[in-house]
């Protein structure tokens, strides 16, 4: 399980952070998701990939954490900084950070299913079928959520 945890930690954490929008709570949700997966490993039927199954658990744990907390919190805009080239000029680096912060702020304003569909597709490279399983919708609905989310992001970003 340690190898699987090492391989999937970042993905599980990003899914959790996308739902709870709080770095500390996302770390707790990530840990809880791995514990739940470990305990339920015998129940994994192989209907989906292990990764999809694990991300579904993380998604459910994140939603559960929000329910038990009673309200949502916004993540700080600098929670995930873009990677800049080492030889990038300071003004270019500042522009990149500003653009990334604006994009994250726009992404945070999307409805949950659209935000999750966009994040899972772009960050994790998941198929629409896998996304649907994780966000609790059909493959077609996850595709629609993704496309509506991208369209709304383009509108918000002025692209």
Architecture blueprint of SSEs:
Elements: H1 2-20, H2 23-40, H3 50-69, H4 90-108, H5 112-124, H6 128-135, H7 139-157
Helix pairs in contact: 1-2, 1-3, 1-5, 2-3, 3-6, 4-7, 5-6, 5-7, 6-7
CATH architecture heading of the largest domain: Orthogonal Bundle
Mean pLDDT: 83
* Overall form: globular
Give the tally of structural domains.
2
What's the tally of helices?
A: 7
Largest sheet: none
Radius of gyration, in Å, reads 16 Å
The poorly predicted ranges are 71-81
Description:
This protein folds into 2 domains: 1-73, RNA polymerase sigma factor, region 2, helix turn helix motif (Rna Polymerase Sigma Factor, Chain: A, Orthogonal Bundle); 89-159, Arc Repressor Mutant, subunit A. It has 159 residues and is mainly α. It contains 7 helices and no strands. Helix content is 73%, strand content 0%. The longest helix has 20 residues, at 50-69.
Feature tags:
159 residues, mainly alpha, Arc Repressor Mutant, subunit A, 2 domains, 73% helix, globular
Short description:
Helices cover 73% and strands 0% of the residues. The protein has helices at residues 2-20, 23-40, 50-69, 90-108, 112-124, 128-135, 139-157. Mean pLDDT is 83; it is low at 71-81.
């Amino acid at each position: 399980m340690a190898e699987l945890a090492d391989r999937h930690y970042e993905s599980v954490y990003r899914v959790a952070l996308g739902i709870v929008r709080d770095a500390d709570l996302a770390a707790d949700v990530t840990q809880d998701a791995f514990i739940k997966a470990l305990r339920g490993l015998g129940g994994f039927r192989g209907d989906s990939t292990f990764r999809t199954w694990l991300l579904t658990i993380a998604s459910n744990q994140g939603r559960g954490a929000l329910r038990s907390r009673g309200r949502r919190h916004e993540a700080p805009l600098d929670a995930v900084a873009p990677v800049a080239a080492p030889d990038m000029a300071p003004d270019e680096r500042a522009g990149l950070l500003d653009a990334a912060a604006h994009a994250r702020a726009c992404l945070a304003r999307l409805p949950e299913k659209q935000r999750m569909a966009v994040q899972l597709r772009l960050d994790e490279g998941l198929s629409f079928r896998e996304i649907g399983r994780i966000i609790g919708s059909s493959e077609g609905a996850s595709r629609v959520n993704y496309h509506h989310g991208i369209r709304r992001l383009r509108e918000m970003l002025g692209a």
